[in-house]
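Q&A log
Question type: sequence-to-structure
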Amino acid sequence: MPKVSICIPTYNRANLLPYAVNSVLHQTYTDFELLICDDGSTDATPEVVSQWEDSRIRYIRHPVNIKRSKNMRSGFEAACGDYFIKFDDDDALTPEFLEKTVAVLDANPDVDFVCTNHWIINPAGEREEAATLANAAKWGKDKLSAGVIRNLIHETFVRQSLQVGSTLFRKACLDEVDFMRFEADGCEDFDLLVRLAIAGKQGYFLPEYLMEYRMHGGQNSLRQSIHFLRAKLFCLNSYHFDESDVERQRIKKAAGLKQDLALRLIEKGDTAEGRQLLQEANQVLGTSNRAKAGLVLSYLPESLRQVAFNLFRQVRTKDYAEQVRQVQTSS
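Response status: OK
Response body:
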């Protein structure tokens, strides 16, 4: 049996999948199996996968699209290794990822998972150093030192410092928390890490940049944003923290998500639900200028409110993530 199971869920990414797969095949640590889980792709994914003649690769192809979380779950359920990692089909591992993370778990039997830092790469697959540093600062990775993470709830829920795609887990600890909740589809990585923290598991941080996370424009459609916000709101509403300060933050974060979701629903044309969520958010956060603006926009004709939302996006300052996503590939 292989020691490590690596799962790459994929859907219609035949152009990007080789970058992810080859990053696994070029690992300095070789005792692994690679499960490519195809969620009913309609592009050339099967032909792309057929190019690799490596007995460590297992191709799980679903005849129809079963959705993101269920596709991920299929790889987890088929995995045979003691250690497990899942990362997306547009990302990659650096050559020493497995060698260094396996060494941590082997040397620390009480540690349930080890998370590394990661590079930000643009749509062309180029590393963006400034964006990488900005990302580490935004999520507090620059404040984490190497070793066992002292307050895992703070890092996973409050700071959201950790990332599943750059983390090697003991599969047993994932079995204990039931890995992926289908209701968290789109937000399952955040949910998994928080539930591990609530369950009292132990995490370890390795500050080396051992993974590459790709940012590109396809990640940010209005439909995807609404789906993500609904999933994350489900997650926050399902948690309860014994520490009063963290529980207050949970309530406030949930209200902030309601406000964000309300604005996107108003933009989409789901006006009644958007107004209702704004009212619920205001009961916790108070009535902000942002909420007032959203309410005003909800009374405009849909065509005009969409123009207003797009105008706002054009004039506001773009953060590092938006700047990276604007980089064009050579194709």
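Response note: The mean pLDDT is 95.
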